């Protein structure tokens, strides 16, 4: 007889829900503390066992890849509207600065094939936004994707260094500097 608090084992049927819970928990934890959070804390926050964590994500990189594949897919969907420019990127970074810092660090440092694919997709999306903003006269023609990545990284880095309640004001200040630096002359 099981104890009253024990959850019934749903077997393979629980797989998709557990995977979703793990990704959501990791996104929350990494957004608060970065990638240094203990891997086991993700399982705990998702309400699943470590076996389930390792079954879905055998290592930290595979979990990060899953998070950032979803992030990139959502970003691509958001920028499908032709009216969207680089402002969408900087708004997204300001909304999740810790996760954005982790993302940029991961795509810069990893040689994992899936991470390289995400990095290529990210650069392709940024190139589209940059091309739109250059064509509209919002951004100088000599600005390239690496410049945009550096600007996003600076924004995220600055916001992770200030208390949560000060982030909106800090984001506004940094955004003004970035806008001025990239602006068409």
From TrEMBL:
Segments forming domain HTH tetR-type: 22-63
Lineage: superkingdom: Bacteria
Entry's Gene Ontology molecular function annotations: DNA-binding transcription factor activity; transcription cis-regulatory region binding
InterPro entries in the record: Homeodomain-like_sf (IPR009057), HTH-type_TetR-like_transc_reg (IPR050109), HTH_TetR (IPR001647), Tet_transcr_reg_TetR-rel_C_sf (IPR036271)
Ranges that cross the membrane: none
One Pfam family cited in the UniProt record for this chain: TetR_N
The UniProt record lists the keyword DNA-binding: yes
Record keywords, A-Z: DNA-binding, Transcription, Transcription regulation
Listed PANTHER family: HTH-TYPE TRANSCRIPTIONAL REGULATOR BETI, HTH-TYPE TRANSCRIPTIONAL REGULATOR RUTR
Protein's name according to its UniProt entry: Helix-turn-helix domain-containing protein
């Amino acid at each position: 007889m099981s104890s009253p608090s024990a959850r019934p084992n749903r077997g393979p049927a629980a797989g998709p829900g557990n995977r979703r819970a793990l990704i959501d928990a990791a996104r929350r934890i990494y957004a608060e503390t970065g990638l240094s959070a203990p891997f086991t804390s993700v399982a705990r926050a998702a309400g699943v066992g470590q076996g389930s964590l390792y079954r879905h994500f055998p290592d930290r990189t595979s979990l990060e890849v899953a998070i950032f594949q979803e992030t990139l897919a959502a970003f691509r969907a958001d920028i499908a509207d032709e009216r969207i420019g680089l402002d969408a990127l900087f708004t997204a970074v300001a909304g999740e600065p810790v996760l954005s810092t982790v993302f940029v660090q991961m795509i810069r440092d990893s040689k994992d094939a899936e991470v390289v694919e995400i990095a290529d997709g990210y650069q392709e999306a940024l190139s589209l936004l940059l091309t739109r903003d250059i064509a509209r006269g919002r951004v100088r023609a000599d600005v390239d994707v690496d410049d945009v990545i550096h600007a996003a990284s600076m924004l995220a880095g600055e916001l992770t260094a200030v208390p949560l309640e000060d982030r909106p004001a800090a984001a506004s200040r940094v955004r003004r500097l970035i806008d001025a630096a990239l602006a068409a002359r």
